[in-house]
Amino acid sequence: MPDLSLAPPPARAELLRLLRTRLASAEGGLRILAEDILGQDARIDFVAVDASARVVLVLLAEAGGDLELVARGLAQRAWVESRLHDWLQLAPNLGLRPEAGAGLVLLCPAFGPESRGAAAALASAGPRLASYRCVRNGAAIELLIEPPLRFEEPMEPALAAAAPGSPAFRTGLTDAELGLSAQERREFE
User: Fold this and answer.
1) pLDDT value at residue 29
2) Is 4 in a helix, a strand, or coil?
3) Between 111 and which of 30, 56, 115, 119 could a Cys-Cys bridge form, CB atoms 3.0 to 4.6 Å apart?
């Protein structure tokens, strides 16, 4: 069995390559249309389309860049949404629905209370937040994303906000999704 350990994130180019692979294998999957394109005064890491033909922007930041990432993501989403009809005219075979708007997925090693609060204040229009970690698996580096990205469900913020006092896994997974028995569940309480 390989030795697993947390690893520092690799260089940004390698991190984006790992993320590209993870996005394609996410539940519901994404079809990546463009990478590293210029948006509103900054680069957009990925522009993709989900299974429902909605455009999804994916942006990644390093540790400590979470609050700026939320602001940058919202600005980029507004910029892209105002251009979706033009994109469809330029490339009608993109398979996107401009009327669906654009979803936003933001990835950072951790999101502080201000970032989570800003995203939550936007309700269902808010970005989906996900934390990433790099794990060394033998000689390879793998990217773990929490909560796992799923694109078959409606794009809503994944803030894993449990009601006070209610037990919940940090990942937001339910007992059924984890397949835990009652005894295994009690071990976590």
Assistant:
1) 77
2) strand
3) 115
